[in-house]
Amino acid sequence: MTVRVLIVDDSGFFRKRLSEIISSDPLLSVVGMAENGLEAIEQVKNLQPDVITMDIEMPVMNGINAVKQIMAIQPIPVLILSSWSTDGAKATLDALDAGAIDYMPKRFEDISADSSVAHRALCKRLCKLANSKVVSLNLTPKKRVSQATILVKKQSFNLVVIGTSTGGPIALQKVLTQLPADFPYPLLLIQHMPASFTPSFAERLNSQCKIRIKHAENGDLLSAGTAYLAPGGTQMLIKGDGSKRYLKIQAGLESQPYKPCIDTTLESLIQQSPKKILTVILTGMGSDGLKGCQKLKQLGGTIWAQDEQSSTIYGMPKAVVEAGIADKILDVIDIGHHLAELK
Hints:
The protein has about 350 residues and is α/β, with parallel strands linked by helices.
């Protein structure tokens, strides 16, 4: 059975081009097209698509408002196609807050200089998203006592590392907004995200959280109560020891599939008292973070993974769970709750 795609864009040329690309994949079919957000809402009601590609800037109703209304009527996975400029980053983050699941560049050249590679990447992403969960943004922590809560035990750490990808911006908000201003450890945040997006994302998280969220810079000294977001397009490494640990930010290589890469950051921590490091793997496609977690686990590190039910894409946390190295498998809200209780 093919994945049913609704295309939403105000450009007739782009709609036609996108339709041709999507229709070339035997696993996908275009069931409808809309010129603006208002048309998109009607198409959703009439056509029941499995996944939607959504432009942001459109007349009558923009993509952000359309996503909000679609999520209220009938939650469907939405892939935002946007420019990767600073303005595009802010609008895309607004769309993710509204309920969109993922984003890709509208200029396919930003994916790959080889158009066939870019087209395959788009189609593969649509197939994956059609089977993903649309998770509510609701940032109000749930008051509950789960088995996971009962089993959590106090443990002393000196660093928390959180790695995530698809669905990560919302998952990170849910986790980090629960942490108190006097959180006792520094945190490293590795979110798969382009270079033009991470400054805006760090700024947005900082405005929402009690702890400080900083767009990481080369030479930053790690400080308790501060979370350092890895800049897009780079690799974030940890150097030094004891109270003088600092960040080394270096350019990502063309050959590296993820920039930033969770495994790369984790592997730089092998000489950093792994028994004192807590690594948390949140929602995301693929298995980035698995190799690094395996190495840290062998040296006494602690690993938590987000559970399937609360994950948008149960790929990265699933890899850790299936490898048998997750100490805890937790709902995203429980992760924030347990982190807040660490001393």
